[in-house]
Amino acid sequence: MKIPQEAKDKLSRWFTEDEMDVHVIFCRWLPFGIGGIILGRVIIIKKFDLSPAGLGLLGHELVHVQQYKELGFWGFLKKYAWDLMSQDIPIASLPLEKPAYNLQREIIWELEEAA
Q: Is 77 helix (H, G, I), strand (E, B) or coil?
């Protein structure tokens, strides 16, 4: 499915229409407590709703879609895997995860404040 227009409207402060032109697939069985992953312009997500937390997670994954677009398949995979294996830091502090988590928190906070 495509991102619903209501979600796009709420995320338009952070992403362009083109950046939100992705496919979303629901999968309950993502490993290791992962809320979502991306494969190019496809977001695989455990659960989606229009709550601030749901839109924050979607925004987080959209950051990874942008990174994937900039780095390419192998570049993204190599950087993510290398950083994950070579650094003894929490996942949220990895170079590709930090901006995604920061934006996720910002989206949640802003949408909760607007409610």
A: helix
CA 86 to chain centre: 22
Answer yes or no: are the C-beta atoms of 90 and 35 closer than 8 Å: no
Q: Each residue of 4-33: pLDDT tens digit?
A: 999 999 999 999 999 999 999 999 888 877
**DSSP per position, 92-109:** GGSTTTHHHHHHHHHHHH
Could you report how far apart the first and last alpha carbons of the chain are, in Å? 26
State the DSSP string of 26-67: E-TT-GGG--EEEETTEEEES---SSHHHHHHHHHHHHHHHH
Q: What is d(CA 66, CA 72) in angstroms, rounded to the nearest whole number? A: 10
pTM for the complete prediction?
0.93
Domain ranges of the chain: 5-114
Per-residue confidence (pLDDT) for residue 16, from 0 to 100:
97
- For 79-100, the pLDDT digits (tens) are 999 999 988 888 889 999 999 9
| Of the candidates 92, 94, 69, the residue with the CA atom closest to the CA atom of residue 80 | 94
